[in-house]
From TrEMBL:
Record Pfam families: F-box-like
Originating organism: Ephemerocybe angulata
Listed InterPro entries: F-box-like_dom_sf, F-box_dom, LRR_dom_sf
Record's protein name: F-box domain-containing protein
Top-level taxon of the source organism: Eukaryota
Domain F-box, first and last residues per copy: 68-116
């Protein structure tokens, strides 16, 4: 036994002198080769050989295996970058990512709720979704855009009122919303009215407008049946980041009380404004927005969009108030007298002008081109206009079936108005307009042939026109490829 221990100690000293496992393995290999000879070893040498073999077996134990690489082990920063690269409307890809593993689900699922819609159309689903939102703080923190659809007030049964209160709970708890859209039924005897909403719902909307992240508000189809002071109160605590507002068809009840408030100590400076200009109450609403007592400050507005306009004077009031800061103007015109126009003389900073005309105008019978020319004439010689877009109707109403009534020859129509437009655009003050885009909404006529005739009468300006064609009865059917 003592000899056995001595041999083991000697082996240990030998290992220490070798200095590394690799050198030891090489030494053992040479020893094995030597021991394969048929020479019979003495007993001490056999014991030494066995000790070396035992030591080699101990040293040859493989290290613990590395953990297998897993897709769930990717860094969160990398996963967030991957999810951010997906298109916002690619919900199917994001849903697939939530099924990979729990780590992916925790990071991908909130992105599915960047935009949410709250509605009471389907009560069971509405209540389930709103309860889910109330119990999911992580999901609520991811919401960036909220769309709320309200039914007619006449159909608000008790369960709908409960759903409306849950809506208010959800709105009040959203920490970082950026866009809020409130929709109601435009054409109904029971339209949504501000005065009939619960205080809880009103306060939740005000809370949302107060969030520092809020930038955009759209109200479409509601009736703000309030007086001027109450109108100002709705937006009095709104965040200064709220710079884009669209108010469509809201003015039916705002003129019930004619109280004029004092000039607000704090006004919201808007960057973008969209308003309806259809009825007389809309005109009065625009006049109110232009006054210093309004909560909105329009003097630094850069983008103005007027929808369904029927009153040029109110639009001119806005353009004169805004003046040089206005850069983008879009007007959708339903009707305007032939001898009228919009004044643009103060809009020296205007860069893009877009004018579109409703079905009342058809260039074949009641042309909008004289109005366009009169409006362009009001521009200052020192302007920044670089983009002009026109959308015009050339519908031929007596030709509804081309198989029975073939399209009339395009040469029979009068193109003198197009010649006048070409003469106006040749004015040196329009030298900065590189391209004129004209969209022809047509039916019952050869629109491309008509555009060729019009371009020919416009002279050299016609070469800079980019034409686009849409059908007024099915605009998604016909190709809209520019020519």
């Amino acid at each position: 036994m003592q000899k056995r221990q001595t041999s083991v100690r000697q082996v240990g000293e030998c290992v220490g002198s070798v200095g590394s496992v690799e050198a030891l393995q090489s030494l053992v290999g040479r020893w094995r080769k030597h021991t394969q000879t048929p020479t019979r070893l003495p007993a001490p040498m056999f014991r030494l050989r066995q000790t070396w073999l035992d030591l080699l077996q101990l040293l040859s134990v493989s290290p613990p295996p590395r953990p297998p690489l897993s897709i769930s082990a990717l860094p969160a920063e990398l996963l967030l970058a991957v999810f951010a690269s997906l298109a916002d409307d690619d919900a199917a890809a994001l849903r697939a990512c939530t099924l990979v593993c729990s780590e992916w689900r925790a990071l991908a699922q909130p992105r599915l709720f960047h935009e949410i819609v709250l509605s009471t159309a389907d009560m069971r689903k509405s209540l389930q979704f709103q309860q889910f939102m109330l119990s999911s703080p992580t999901i609520r923190a991811a919401v960036r855009a909220v769309t709320v659809h309200f039914p007619d007030l006449d159909s608000w049964a008790p369960d709908r009122r409960r759903a409306a209160n849950l809506m208010a709970d959800v709105l009040e708890l959203l920490p970082r919303p950026e866009r809020l859209r409130l929709y109601g039924a435009r054409f109904s005897d029971y339209r949504i009215k501000w005065s009939r909403l619960s205080n809880h719902l009103k306060n939740s909307i005000r809370t949302l407008l107060h969030r520092p992240s809020m930038t955009t508000l759209l109200i479409d189809g509601w009736v703000l049946d309030v007086n001027h002071p109450e109108f100002n109160t709705i937006f009095a605590d709104a965040s200064h980041s709220l710079t884009s507002i669209s108010l469509l068809d809201i003015s039916d009840g705002i003129w019930g009380v004619h109280e004029v408030p004092a000039v607000p100590s704090r006004r919201l400076a808007l960057d973008k404004l969209t308003v309806t200009n259809t009825f007389s109450k809309d005109v009065k609403f625009i006049e109110w927005l232009s006054r210093p007592e309004s909560i909105f400050d329009l003097e630094q507005l850069t983008s103005l969009h007027v929808v369904e306009s029927r009153d040029d004077a109110s639009v001119s009031l806005l353009t004169s108030l805004i003046g040089p800061s206005l850069e983008h103007l879009e007007v959708n015109i339903s009707y305007t007298p032939q001898d009228s126009s919009i004044g643009l003389s103060t809009c020296t900073g205007l860069r893009s002008l877009s004018l579109s005309f409703g079905v009342f105008y058809t260039e074949l019978y009641y042309s909008s081109l004289p109005w366009i020319c009169a409006t362009l004439d009001t521009l200052s010689p020192h302007n920044a206009l670089s983009s002009l877009s026109l959308s015009l109707y050339i519908t031929h109403p007596r030709n509804t079936n081309a198989r029975v009534f073939p399209p009339p020859p395009v040469g029979r129509f009068n193109y003198e108005r197009w010649a006048r437009l070409g003469a106006v655009l040749r004015n040196p003050k329009f030298a900065g307009v590189g391209e004129v885009r004209v969209q022809l909404v047509h039916h019952g006529i050869d629109a491309r042939g008509y555009s060729q005739m019009a371009a020919g009468r416009m002279g050299e300006v016609g070469e800079r026109v980019r034409w686009r064609f849409l059908r007024d009865d099915s605009p998604d059917v016909e190709d809209a490829t520019p020519t």
